[in-house]
Amino acid sequence: MAAKVSQLLQGGIRYGKDLKTSAASIEPGMLVTLDTSGSTVSTSGSTAATKPFGMAFGNRYKPYAPTTRVFDSGEPLTVIQGQGYVALSSDFFDEASLPAADVDIYGAVGGKWTISAGIGGTAPKVGHSLGTRVRHEAVGGTGAAQNLAVIWFDFSP
Amino acid sequence: MPNKFSSEIGYDFSADIFTYGTHTLDGKKKAGLEASVYNQADADAFLAAFAKGGLNSREEHMLLAQTIVEPIEQVVPYVEMYSPVFFMTQGYGEIEDNRIPVEDTVAMAWETHQDGAIHYTRSGYTWTRPDFVTFDTGVEVPWKALAKAGWNFLARQMKRATEALARKRDDVARNVLIAGIPASHEHLIASGGVLTKAAVDTLLKAQADIGFPVSRVLINPGTIMDMGDFTWGGTGFFIPPSDAAQLLRTLHIMNYGGAEWYTNPHYLTNEVLFGGAPAQIGWHQTKGEVNTASDIDIDLGIDKHAIRDQEHAWYVGNTYTLARIRIS
């Protein structure tokens, strides 16, 4: 069962060199910002100072047979940069719901994505919503439909 | 000195009884009693020793005690019921990881243009490790008590002790199973405390609806006899003669609904538990071996027997195949 879904559909540059998490709350699909050390990332925020560096990505390999997708503190990870398409469940949005099609997407606190441009439009823009698509997850025996937002992301410097 | 025949005395731990010719005293199976190795003098000496009460090894006395009338059992022996019916069993070594992979796959398909680029998805990568629990029990036998009792209460007490272990295992296994039943799979019926055909049929249909038809049922043997009061069929439906005969003799139809109905008198009378095949449900993991040890205490004049159980863990991987009728 995979109710919480983040899938890199296409594109992006996979940057995974000399990079680790700074704290134990980051999982694939969350927005991250580069720390001043240049070697760790933290969950990004909604201001220019905490602008997303990219999206956390990748399987965990440090713990043997991990029981959660969430990276430990100090665990290597890959960050998606550049442009591409990602499918996200509502868990990754600050509103806890999927955005409508054809709206701009911004970075929110805690590494979330949002449709809110912030007060005075100060939130960093990270992409544009292309609409929702349906997948089926393994619940209820015959499965259940789950809507995912397809986002065109652009993590530019 | 022990009689020559006494070398054939053994103990069957699975049945908790002393045996003759089939097991060794430490419970290992033997090829069987070979009478040809004994002569008539051996047999005469053995019988004479019994006749005179002259047997003097503890095992001989206890074997003799088996022939003495024992108290009639007032309880039905407890037999583990949840693990054998609903779980697959998997054993692990002491240092083995009991990880179980968790399905975390995402698949998406698209109607596309021939020039459209493929969009890829990948599977997640996580496991779960059920928590182990273990149990133990012990039996203490005063030498004098056993000598004076005149019946083998040690065997009876060992039997009760192993039943107590089985109950403890079942308590945990049941909790794991019950916790796994989805709320929508709980069928509550207010029917004066009896199971109804309508309730069973509704559940069987609901489970068939979602692609996990019921294949195993755990029920009290009294509750299953409520089938005898079912109204079978309706217009144009006649119960086959063979089933009718079975119903009249036993008050139930053993494979009703295409499922195997497992009965256990220790199962609750106010509910019925339904599931698919164990391969559709989950795992009963065991780690290590059952360890038994015995010792004597010469200060206290007692024998001590300890049983340390394996470690056990139960895991339901697919809750949707579980369902329950609760009767009130």
Overview of the molecule:
- The termini of chain A are far apart.
- Helices cover 0% and strands 42% of the residues of chain A.
- Chain A has strands spanning 6-15, 20-21, 31-34, 40-43, 54-57, 78-88, 104-107, 113-114, 125-137, 144-155.
- Chain A has one domain: Virus Head Decoration Protein, Chain: A (Beta Barrel), CATH 2.40.300.
- Chain A is mainly beta.
- With 328 residues, chain B is of the alpha+beta class.
- Chain B folds into two domains: 4-66, no CATH class; 134-327, no CATH class.
- Chain B has helices at residues 40-52, 58-66, 82-86, 143-149, 153-180, 197-209, 221-224, 241-250; strands spanning 9-12, 17-20, 88-92, 100-102, 126-128, 133-142, 186-189, 216-219, 260-263, 271-275, 282-287, 291-297, 302-316, 323-327.
- In chain B, the strands form four sheets. In chain B, strands 3, 6, 11, 12 and 13 form a five-stranded mixed beta sheet that branches. Chain B has a five-stranded mixed beta sheet with strand order 7-14-10-8-9. Chain B has a two-stranded antiparallel sheet with strand order 1-2.
- In chain B, a hairpin with a 4-residue loop joins strand 1 and strand 2.
- Chain A binds chain B through residues 1-2, 5, 7-10, 59-60, 64-69, 85, 87, 133, 135-136, 138-142, 148, and chain B through 97, 99, 102-108, 110, 117-122, 124-129, 209-212, 320-321.
